[in-house]
Amino acid sequence: MSILKLKRIGFCPEDDESFCVSDFEIDPEISQYLLVVNTTIDEELNYITMES
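Request: output the structure for the sequence above.
Response:
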């Protein structure tokens, strides 16, 4: 996990299923993809995805 860096945190108070969206980046020399983690208002994992 040491290669991941938190890039952005977004809050969507009107959306209980994707209340918090955290974007993590990998070293840009390795990949331009983001690991996106979505959690619910109850702080439970909703889903994780990769985005470019």
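DSSP finds no helices and four strands in the chain.
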